[in-house]
UniProtKB/TrEMBL annotation:
Binding sites annotated in the UniProt record for Mg(2+): E243
Cross-referenced SMART domains: ALAD
Family in the record: Belongs to the ALAD family.
GO BP, sorted A to Z: protoporphyrinogen IX biosynthetic process
GO molecular function, one term: zinc ion binding
Record flagged with keyword Transmembrane helix: no
Protein name: Delta-aminolevulinic acid dehydratase
Organism (species): Marinospirillum alkaliphilum DSM 21637
EC category: lyase
Catalytic reactions of this protein: 2 5-aminolevulinate = porphobilinogen + 2 H2O + H(+)
Keywords: Heme biosynthesis, Lyase, Magnesium, Metal-binding, Porphyrin biosynthesis
Assembly with partners or alone: Homooctamer.
Active site: K203, K258
Length: 333
């Protein structure tokens, strides 16, 4: 029996998908090296390389090796790196004084990067968790509650010490109230008018940060206590808009949504409501899941590239990703 269609479709969506040239013409989102920011872990010592077991391919490096890594990232066209310190036990106290030591590991690293690779933007983390004996992002009272205004005072000192060392972008990731305004005020007072603030405005109390806490060595100190009294509930979305509005009013230049992939609805709402530079942190747990599956041969690197394009498609302007160097190599091929 012959089947004759009664009607041919006027629009065939598959026409434009038929060839590479027309697929390229209608591609809506273009991931480029300019979108990739790479988090780096710095540790003390010389010629020290420590792999992070839960993050295959990621190593904590001593500053001499990390400067070389920064040169390679800049040569690949990566615009900026985000620096995270591994602080030894002696540097961890109840009041986190090491956070604002002008000769601390981060402050020395900023200077070394700016000397060696001045064109590479340096983003530094403003938060106390690497420096507290208990692993919380702030100073706690007897009950273990993180004290907001007392913590902000210390964050301001930390921020100023980073800016004075030459950091281009300060990135408060602590979720204290009022810290953006307090930091902005002191930067202006000190004439540091071009130091940018990237606020981790919508940062969730996420289970996806586990491998990062292994990498910086805060997991053991933190123990079972969580960060729910300051980081956001993953169930909330309107609250993220409220956070972003406050941080912009206080003087943030860029805002961040963190984590990435399970939070792309938040990215889209933030970008469409505010239209400001919006970054996404593809966090350690997202990286770990992809890399574990890739190591097992269950996924390929294409899945990681897909995740990055999808994060960008949600509307962000840049992605912090541990896959940044490899992604840049793949994009440059
Ligand atoms: C801490 C901080 C964290 C991350 C970046 N800064 C962990 C946390 O909030 O406990 C997580 C990054 C990642 O998981 O990749 N201020």
């Amino acid at each position: 029996m012959q089947i004759t269609p009664r009607q041919f479709p006027a629009t065939r969506m598959r026409r434009m998908r038929a060839d590479d040239f027309s697929r390229r013409l209608m591609q809506e989102t273009h991931l480029s090296v300019n979108d990739l920011l790479v988090p780096l872990f710095v540790q003390e010592g010389q010629q020290q390389r420590t792999p992070v077991p839960s993050m295959p391919g990621v190593e904590r490096l001593s500053l001499d090796l990390l400067v070389q890594e920064a040169r390679e990232l800049a040569a690949l066209g990566i615009p900026a790196i985000a620096l995270f310190p591994v602080v030894d036990a002696a540097g961890k106290t109840d009041l986190a004084e090491e956070a604002y030591n002008p000769n601390g590991l981060v402050q020395r690293s900023i200077k070394a990067f700016k000397d060696a690779v001045p064109q590479l933007g340096i983003i530094t983390d403003i938060a106390l968790d690497p420096y507290t004996s208990h692993g919380q992002d702030g100073i706690i009272d007897e009950q273990g509650y993180v004290l907001n205004d007392r913590t902000v005072e210390t964050l301001v000192k930390q921020a100023l010490s980073h800016a004075e060392a030459g950091a281009d972008v300060l990135a408060p990731s602590d979720m204290m109230d009022g810290r953006i305004g307090a930091i902005r005020q002191v930067l202006e007072q000190e004439g540091l008018v071009n130091t940018r603030i990237l606020s981790y405005a919508a940062k969730y109390a996420s289970a996806y940060y586990g491998p990062f806490r292994d990498a910086v060595g805060s997991a053991a100190n933190l123990g079972k206590s969580g960060k729910q009294s300051y980081q956001m509930d993953p169930a909330n979305s309107d609250e993220a808009l409220h956070e972003v509005a406050l941080d912009l009013a206080e003087g943030a230049d860029m805002v961040m949504v963190k984590p990435g992939m399970p939070y792309l609805d938040i990215v889209q709402r933030v970008k469409s409501q505010f239209g400001v530079p919006t970054l996404v942190y593809q966090v350690s747990g997202e990286y770990a899941m992809h890399m574990a599956a890739i190591e097992k041969g269950w996924l390929t690197e294409a899945a990681m590239m897909e995740a990055l394009v999808c994060i960008k498609r949600a509307g962000c302007d840049g992605i912090l990703t541990y896959f940044g160097k490899r992604a840049a190599q793949l994009l440059n091929q």
